[in-house]
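Slide 14.
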Amino acid sequence: MSVSVAGLVLLTIAYTDQFNFPLKTSEIYQRLIAISIDKKKLLEILKLLADKKLITQKADCTQKAGCTHKAGCTCEVGCWQLGTRLIKPELRWAREKLSQTRWPEVDELSRIIGWIGWVKGIGVTGSLAMKNIRPKSDIDFMIVTQPHRLWVTRLLVMLIIWIVGKRRTRHGAEDDSWCFNLWLDTASMDLPIYKQTIYSAYEVCQAKWVLDKDGTAQEFYQANQWVKVYLPNYYQECVVSGGEELIRTTKKHWSVFYWLWSWLWSSFFYLINLTAYAFQLVYMYPHLTREKVSLGFAYFHPRSTSNVVYQRWYNSLLVLWKN
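Slide 15: predicted structure.
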């Protein structure tokens, strides 16, 4: 059996292990990094790694309450974690229950901004998307808008969020707030080269879409096909679950009046959006650190979370190697 394949399975477990999130066998298969193997071979590799005490399986982290595990049981009894870790299986289950209590807030957001025609999609990202949220944590959202509508939409959305009392300030000290740290318009959904990493690949696949107008989610996956290099199984699952590949169609209108009206209307909103962008950029500029903004996107990530994740990933494997 290829050592490199076993190593990639170990890397897959180690990546999520740092979040105190042991994985079921089916989840390891889903999240395999850079490879796609059949489930039988995966089970063989897991046994091999367990025999070498590189990983261990803890019981009762996701089994259904009261299940006796007789024939026909659909539970996966036990989750895999690194052999050097002592994660209590109950922790994942407790966080999943806590996450369920926060989803009504997601429904509330979808209701209060979903009516805005320029909002084409809303995705939940971060720990809630993984059902691994901690007490008092904020909820991370990705908002997708029509082209040339992002910044005017953001003004409207942030006003609404301020009114309902869920706005997160720059200091981020508010408990249970809503964090809108990713904004894209449908012409800028492909992540730039410098963001095409294993960390971003997981974020793309883990996003949970709660509003999807006109096949926006599927268009998002099609725009980020680079993800399948890192996570072939996970990416394929996202594409399949979102339906067949999006086919773009354009209605033909031969009326000169229609084209003239469309051009004038689009030009008007382009200027409105440009003005909104300039206004917000002037307001944000003194506080910008690592954030990246343009007319078509806004990545409000003030710290390099990916570097923190990579360092913890490396440290976990280093401890494993030393033992």
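Speaker note: Residues 69-74, 243-253 have pLDDT under 50 and may be disordered.
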